[in-house]
Amino acid sequence: MSTLKKFWILFGSAAAVAGLYFGAAALKLEIVFWLIVALCALGAVFWTIVPWFIRVVPKIRNYDKLLQKVGRLQGDLDDARSQAARLDSVAERVWGLGYEAGIDEALGATLGIISPIPVLTQVVTTERGVSFLATAGTPEPRIGARYSIVAAATAEVRGVVEVIRTVAEENLVVLLCVRRSVPAYWEQLEQRAMVDNSVPTGTEIKHLQISRKSVAPSNLLEAPEENSHG
After folding, report:
1. DSSP string, 67-81
2. 6, CA 20 to 30 Å: which among 15, 33, 145, 205?
3. Non-local CB neighbours of 97 within 8 Å, separated by 6+ positions
4. Residue 164 contacts by C-beta under 8 Å, 6 or more apart in sequence?
């Protein structure tokens, strides 16, 4: 608003008030003038307060809803924090299992390399799972040594076995399956062992080769319940 426009508004207002006052004074009705002033003051206050009420009242009415919403959000936040804590715990546990499995894999491969590869003779099933019996060379494999079970025709690694027992007097080695790379093969082997303990044709045992793929968590943790010593 320009200065000139403000001037005329103020001038007109002052002139109107002065004219109203002198008119009321000439008629001996000054009380009417002051009554009009009071009414205008009340009107100005009302004019200011009403819009404020219009804005504030709905907010007051929605206060309970806002509190409920805040409560729900707080609950969601608590749930999110709890879930994050559980995920941290799971991640830590999985990392620990993967670390231990990787150590077992590396140690088992090393122990397998320093002794001759056993010769597979039979397949047996126990409460710990399917195992191979084998004859040992000299020196006999150490407990914990690991080897790969491989398909002779395709060189496909079907799983990993670990030496869990040796019987020196009988030149016997027990190798437990600790990882089933091809689950169907081991399932069929278990069923077959119920009626035939011979080693299937085309099954070979090789030194365990450590590779990036072989130590991937998805492989190392595939069957942790079978991966126990003794």
Report:
1. HHHHHHHHHHHHHHH
2. 33
3. 220, 221, 224
4. 128, 131, 143, 174, 175, 176, 229, 230
pLDDT tens column, 62-118: 767 777 777 788 877 777 777 777 766 655 665 555 556 667 778 888 888 888 899
Q: Rounded to an integer, what distance in angstroms lies between the CA atom of residue 4 and that of residue 66? A: 48
Sign of CA pseudo-dihedral 57, 60, 65, 69: positive
Q: Are 156 and 150 a contacting pair, CB within 8 Å? A: yes
Question: For residues 103 and 95, what is the distance between their CA atoms, to the nearest angstrom?
Answer: 12
Backbone angles phi, psi at 156, to 5 degrees: -70, 130
Establish how many alpha carbons lie within 13 A of residue 69's alpha carbon, considering only the half-sphere containing its beta carbon: 5
The pair of structure tokens assigned to 75 is 């609950």
Asked whether 96 and 104 are in contact (CB, 8 A), the reply is: no
Whole-Å CA distances, 76 to 62, 176, 182: 21, 47, 43
**The predicted structure's pLDDT at residue 128:** 85
What digits encode the pLDDT tens for the residues 184-210? 999 999 999 889 999 999 999 998 887
Contacts of residue 199, Cβ cutoff 8 Å, sequence gap at least 6 = 120, 121, 122, 123, 132
How would you classify residue 7: left for phi > 0, otherwise alpha for psi between -120 and 50, otherwise beta?
Answer: alpha
Residues 55 and 145: their CA atoms lie apart, in Å, by 79
Maximal C-alpha separation, the chain: 139
